[in-house]
Structure formats: C-alpha cells, structure tokens
Amino acid sequence: MDVYDSKDYRYARDWMKETLRLLDEEGHSSTVDLSDVYDHLSFAEYKLGNLKRAAHYTRLMLQNDPTHARAQRNVAYFEELIRTEPEKYINQDDERGEEGEGETAESRESMTQYERYQSLCRGPWPLPKEYDSELTCFYYDNHRTPSLVIRPVKVEVVFHKPRIFMLRGILSEREMDRLKELAGPILKRATAKNADSGKDEPAHYRISKSGWLSSKHDPLGYVDRIDRRIEDFTGLTMSTAEQLQVVNYGIGGHYEPHYDFGTDEASFTDGKDRNRIATVLFYLSDVELGGATVFPIVGARIQPFKGDAAFWWNLKKSGEGDMLTRHAGCPVLVGTKWVCNKWIHEGGQEFRRRCGLTPNEESYGHSL
C-alpha cells in the first residue's frame, strides 16, 4: 500500500476505513484479512496521535483473532499511555470522535488547518451572527459600464473577511460547453510549483487535469468574450492576466490548501506583471457530491453551482498578500467537477485598483 509505505498515515487511515466499509457490504465473501485491516488502522491512528482510536481498533483485532500476541501487548501499551500521559498522547481527533462528530466552535478553534479543511469538506460551518449585515445581494454595473447597464451582474457577498463574491449565472450554457469542448483535447495532469526547484511539477496534493485557453484556440470568439466580461465586471485589465485555465476533477480529484498569490520573492514577481492580484473561479458543472471550495483559515465554504463564478482579491490594496485567502478544492465524491479560473496580475492595475490610505484598507459596499 503506497500511502502506508510512504508514511502518509492520514490517507492510509482513510483507505483502511473505506476497506472496512466495502468488507461490510461484501460480507464474508472477501479474501481480505480483517485482522490485517485493523492492524494497519491501529498503527495509522497511533502515528497520528489518536491513542483511543488505536486502542479501539486493536481490540477489534483481538475480537477477530484473540491469540494475536502483538495486539495483546499493544492494547496494554496504549491504555498505559492514555492513563499516565493523557495530555501528551491524546490528540484532539480523539475528543471530537469520528468524522467530526460533536464539533463545536471551540473545538474548531483548536483544529490544525488541515483538519479545518477536512471538516469544511464534510459540510458548512455556521457563520457568526455579526456577519449577517455584511452578507448582501445586489445588481452590479461597475459604474455604468456599457455592457453591464442592460444586463448587470447578480452579485452575492458570501463571506465578509476576506470578501468573497459569487457572481450568479455569469456564464451561459453555450459558453460553458464551448470551454469544455476546447479544453478536452489539451487536458494534461495538473502541476504545482515545487518550492525547492521552482519548477511546475505534478504533486500528490493536486489531483486533476488542466488545459490553458487563449483566443488562438477559439476562432468562434468565446474566450475573448469571456475575457472582456471579466474586464467589465472587475474593472481590471486582462492584458497582463494569465490565460483561462480549464480544470477537470474526476472521482477523488482535489486540490489541498494553497494560495493563488506568490508567497515569496521568487514567485510571480519577476517582470512587469508581478503577483496575482485577484482570482475569478467559474463553475462549469454542478457536482453531485463533494467538490466544494473551502477557505480553512476563516471557515468559508462555496458549493459549486453551474454557471456561477467566485471572485476574491488575493492581495490587499497595499500589494501585500491576504493570508486569509488560503483555499482548497475538496475531493469529488460522486460525479465530476469542471471549473475555469482566471488569474489576474498586478501589472497594469495601478490606476484601476489604487493603493489605500492605510496598508489594510479594503473595499466595502455595493462594489467588488
């Protein structure tokens, strides 16, 4: 088992739990050794610091094979550790129970960022009451931009800080079909920047296929039309933006927590275009189960709806990266997920999004 041998114990635990579920469905017809599954699960939980769960799976192992000498020793060992040094060995996972059972606002505060990501992928968190007045809907024509006067954008503010906007019904069915049609033949395994080498390489934390589209790919002009629409509702120039990236996530496809902007001097800062100032994320399909976009630091969650787009600023008005925008694409559990993103750069935006009077100044009101 690759994830076990590579010491990726979180994924090893998840695969073992799925094995148990399948064994339960198949009854006794499987040739898989149940004790072996419990053994792997117990060790994974032990390595993750979850002593109560490790002891639980070891007891189940003994129920299946009462003469297993190592399991007998391990149960005694786990119970002694729990009794004598509980504060050292009992992980927060033990106290929350399986799959986030019994989560509270207080327990979420103590989660690691990866645990927050997993919890949000399981379902949304309730938003604080004080956010109610900030979460609004409005029609937006970006200061009477001609193309938006007759058909303004339907905007919903879905999170307060960072400000996350949903642009409802921003793409037509024909436009979405065209993007998928163009991208299909050029999709390749998606890559991520290697922090050590500086090169774009396949990564275990990003499982998807992607392709880049420019106007040269589309004689019918759909790509240009979408670029113009982005420029109209954001007010930002597309001359320094990256090409449209179409991404397909199959079953299990995901992208673990990351920033869109460069977090060090070497990333995206060479040359005139500089860093990624904003992200537009179009949803080209509904997802039957899974596939949400989550922001684990702040607890925000966006469920994909076909034709909608999410927009957020990666950089503050000062040009400093907004660390609250760390986000992730949750694993697709049923169905498939198609998205298209546009990364907009700082270059050329100097008079379109001006610096604020203070380093942390943000935009509010009925505007992006």
What can you tell me about this protein's structure?
The protein has 368 residues and is of the alpha+beta class. It has two domains: 2-102, Tetratricopeptide repeat domain (Serine Threonine Protein Phosphatase 5, Tetratricopeptide repeat, Alpha Horseshoe); 129-345, q2cbj1_9rhob like domain (Jelly Rolls, Sandwich). 32% of the residues lie in helices and 21% in strands. The chain is built from twelve helices and 18 strands. It has helices at 2-5, 9-26, 34-47, 51-64, 69-84, 86-89, 92-96, 105-109, 113-122, 146-149, 173-183, 222-234, and strands at residues 137-140, 153-159, 164-168, 188-189, 192-193, 200-201, 206-207, 209-213, 244-249, 254-258, 276-283, 289-290, 293-295, 300-302, 309-313, 327-329, 332-334, 337-345. The chain has a nine-stranded antiparallel sheet, with helices on one face. A five-stranded antiparallel sheet has the order 7-10-16-13-14, with helices on one face. A two-stranded antiparallel ribbon has the order 5-6. Strand 5 and strand 6 form a beta hairpin. The mean pLDDT is 87. This is Prolyl 4-hydroxylase subunit alpha-1.
Give the helix level as a range of percent: 25-40%
Please provide the ordered H/E string of secondary-structure elements. Answer: HHHHHHHHHEHEEHEEEEEHEEEEEEEEEE
Q: How many structurally independent domains?
A: 2
Strand order of the largest sheet: 1-2-3-15-11-18-9-8-4
Q: Please indicate the percent range of residues in DSSP E strands (runs of 2 or more).
A: 15-25%
The CATH class label of the largest domain is: Mainly Beta
User: How many helix segments?
Assistant: 12
**What's the N-to-C terminus distance?**
48 Å
* Secondary structure tally: strands: 18
Characterize the main sheet. Answer: 9 strands, antiparallel
- Secondary structure class reads alpha+beta
Radius of gyration, taken over Cα atoms and rounded to an integer in Å: 24 Å
Give unreliable regions as ranges.
none
CATH topology (level 3) name of the largest domain:
Jelly Rolls
Mean pLDDT: 87
Oligomer: single chain
Overall shape: elongated
- CATH 2nd-level architecture of the largest domain: Sandwich
CATH superfamily of the largest domain: q2cbj1_9rhob like domain
Keywords: Dioxygenase, Endoplasmic reticulum, Glycoprotein, Iron, Metal-binding, Oxidoreductase, Vitamin C
Cofactor: L-ascorbate
GO molecular function, one term: L-ascorbic acid binding
Organism: Geodia barretti
